[in-house]
Amino acid sequence: MRPRPAPLVDPRSVARAFATPWGQAFYARPTIEVAWALLGQWLIRRLPDGWRVGRITETEAYIAGDAANHAVLGPTLRNRSMFGPPGTLYVYRVHQVHCANAVTGYGTAVLLRSVEPLLGVPGDPRGPGRLCRAFALDRAHDGTSLLTGPVRIAASGASVARVLVGRRIGIRLDAHRPLRFVVSGSRWVSSPRIPLRSERASGPAVYLSFAQS
DNA sequence: TCATTGATTTGCT
DNA sequence: GCAAATCAATGAT
Q1: CA at A6, C1' at B7: how many angstroms apart?
Q2: Burial group, residue A71, by CB count within 10 angstroms (0-12, 13-18, 19+)
Q3: Which residues contact A14 (CB under 8 A, 6 or more apart)?
Q4: Is the dihedral of CA A117, A121, A124, A126 positive or negative?
Q5: Chain C bases near protein CB atoms (7 A cut-off)
Q6: Calpha distance A189→A182 (Å, rounded)
Q7: CA at A39, C1' at B3: how many angstroms apart?
Q8: Spatial separation of the C-alpha atoms in residues A9 and A13, rounded to whole Å
Q9: Which helix (H) or strand (E) holds A24?
Q10: In angstroms, how far apart are the furthest CA atoms of chain A?
Q11: What is the DSSP letter of A150?
């Protein structure tokens, strides 16, 4: 019998982080800034039989005036949680999978694309569909709060040294915009062949100048 | 009620 | 590299 690998995080610290997640102010900022800030944070899922924890390694911003944004035409049955308060979870289905987003403002959100498994994560959480499968997320979680719900995001305590920026994956409209953000050097990232360019971890200020909200 | 369309993943060539 | 799988949301009829 093979020894079980030691967990990368202490379950007690996970419970503490789950109890003190990022608050609404974390999400109520320009979407690109939030997409950048989410890198390195803990995504924590509470299930009846335990925790699932991953370190966020890949995000995409869906901003105002963005043709690829589901919310660009206003509220519908599918996207209505994108018009909830900052820190709302927006989960939708596309093809055969689900994708999870953190709402930042009225009709804007950050797609969670990949995490690095830290505790209790089954399978491969690289890619938004596989991330949702690994964290057992579906439309039942749409509209729940990342501040008080069964899925939360909390500070990891560690900072991300360098961020890679590139075009978003799998979209047709506004496909060229540099709104995809990746933890530099991580192997827990989808679409490894899509080109990315390296940016200082000092922040996304350069992108905020041309892409508001 | 019908046709179109995907913020994906997988498997085959 | 490319296309199929497969289905709910959406908008047109």
Answers
A1: 35
A2: buried
A3: A42, A44, A51, A53, A119
A4: negative
A5: 1, 5-11
A6: 7
A7: 40
A8: 7
A9: helix A24-27
A10: 56
A11: S
CA of A120 vs C1' of C9, distance in Å? 33
What nucleotide is nearest A80 when CA is compared to C1'?
C9
- Which pTM value belongs to this model? 0.92
**Separate counts of helices (H) and strands (E) for chain A:** 5, 9
Could you identify the residue whose CA is nearest to the C1' atom of nucleotide C9? A78
- Tokens in use for A71? 């919310």
- The per-residue pLDDT for range A123-176, each reduced to its tens digit, is 999 999 999 999 999 999 999 999 999 999 999 888 888 899 999 999 999 999
Give the E-state strand segments of chain A in sequence order: 42-47, 50-62, 89-94, 97-105, 108-119, 151-154, 162-166, 180-183, 197-200
Residue reference for tokens 């915009």: A177
